[in-house]
Amino acid sequence: MTGRYRLPAYGTVHVMKRTTVYFPDELKARLEAEAKRRGTTEAQIVRGAVDKETRRPRPGGGIILGDSEGMTARNLDDYLEGFGED
Predict the structure, then answer these.
(1) Residues near 6 by beta carbon (within 8 Å), at least 6 away in sequence
(2) Tens digit of each residue's pLDDT (9 = 90 or more) over 30-41
(3) CB–CB of 46/28 below 8 Å?
């Protein structure tokens, strides 16, 4: 088992790295309240949020900046003229 150590009588202990995160007062208060509401730890909520955020697929590409000389929606038909006629 990668990342885990099995104790014979006590179950599974996950091997984790410790880190420090600083939160603004309002966000920390919301985290505390949410942990209490769920009956879990603040750390578990943070781990879940980071896991979800880092697994989410990201759209490719992005905004292309530059001047509009060249191919644009206005002259797309000119650029595609003859395409696929072979």
Answers:
(1) 12
(2) 999 999 999 999
(3) no
DSSP class of residue 71 equals S
CATH architecture of 21-56: Orthogonal Bundle (1.10)
Beta strands in the chain (DSSP E): 4-7, 11-14
The CA-based diameter of the chain, rounded to the nearest angstrom, is 74
Asked if 23 and 31 count as a contact pair (C-beta separation under 8 A), the reply is yes
pTM strictly above 0.85? no
Strand partners, 7: 11
Number of Cβ within a 10 Å radius of residue 26: 8
- Using alpha carbons, select from 64, 48, 45 the residue that is nearest to residue 56: 48
Query: CB within 8 A of 10, min separation 6: which ones?
Result: none
